[in-house]
Amino acid sequence: AQKITQTQPGMFVQEKEAVTLDCTYDTSDPSYGLFWYKQPSSGEMIFLIYQGSYDQQNATEGRYSLNFQKARKSANLVISASQLGDSAMYFCAMRASGGATNKLIFGTGTLLAVQP
Amino acid sequence: DAGVIQSPRHEVTEMGQEVTLRCKPISGHNSLFWYRQTMMRGLELLIYFNNNVPIDDSGMPEDRFSAKMPNASFSTLKIQPSEPRDSAVYFCASRSSEVGELFFGEGSRLTVL
Fold first, then answer.
1. Nearest one of B81, B99, B88, B64 to B10, comparing CA atoms
2. Average pLDDT of every residue of chain B
3. Which of A46, A68, B56, B69 could form a disulfide with A38 if both were Cys (CB 3.0 to 4.6 A apart)?
4. pLDDT of B97 higher than 90
5. What confidence tens digit (pLDDT) does each residue in A39-86 have?
6. How far separated are the first and last CA of chain B, in Å rounded?
7. Which residues of B fall within a CB distance of 8 Å from A102?
8. Is the CB of B45 less than 8 angstroms away from the CB of A100?
9. CB contact under 8 A, A106 and B42
């Protein structure tokens, strides 16, 4: 069975510092995708970054980078130079490719608070 | 470009009433997902359509829940009869390919009294 685990319910970081949000996954499929979404207090879900299981390099999108360690089955999100606007809930998700489905399953999220 | 459009944004109803949530996916997207978000259970996938056909409805809680996608530009999630434990934010999301990211609507916040 596919599973996504986020073990940090909450994190604090000082403005302008970097922060790493942890995500581990479990799947027996050789082909899968990993996603990170941001949910600010307003409630919308915002796509941040994607990593494919066959991608050779770690994904980066601006201040976001994904530390993909395939052997450890981890896909941690790194936010560099944190800003106050980064305060939000962050969800890791995996595209599970079992059988005919390509559904996206989500972890429980990490609430990030950026302090001035 | 218009994103995923959900309605209503907020609904308050009484236990036993029928609730219908609506979703218009992004034009050209061929996959549509309904998720439910609660504090206790997080984001749960309820059902997923591909080319208007339900592919995986294993997350639909029980027979009180039903979802339809009569065409590529419209989907409904119906709860009949509603119960207080159905109170949640219901998200609709669409995707243009089998492997791409999901684009979410703003959600429908349902409160069942």
1. B88
2. 94
3. A46
4. no
5. 999 999 999 999 999 998 999 999 999 999 999 999 999 999 999 999
6. 36
7. 31, 50, 98-99
8. no
9. yes
> Chain A neighbours among B 68-97 (CB < 8 Å)?
89, 91, 93
**From CA A26, how far away is CA A39, in angstroms rounded?**
23
A82 to chain B, closest Cα gap in Å: 24
Q: Are the beta carbons of B88 and B82 closer than 8 angstroms?
A: no
Contact flag B48-A101 (C-beta cutoff 8 Å)? yes
Q: Is B25 on the interface with A (CB under 8 A)?
A: no
Q: How far is B11 from chain A (nearest CA, A)?
A: 16
Three-state secondary-structure class, residue A97: coil
Is residue A88 very low, low, confident or very high in pLDDT (cuts 50, 70, 90)? very high
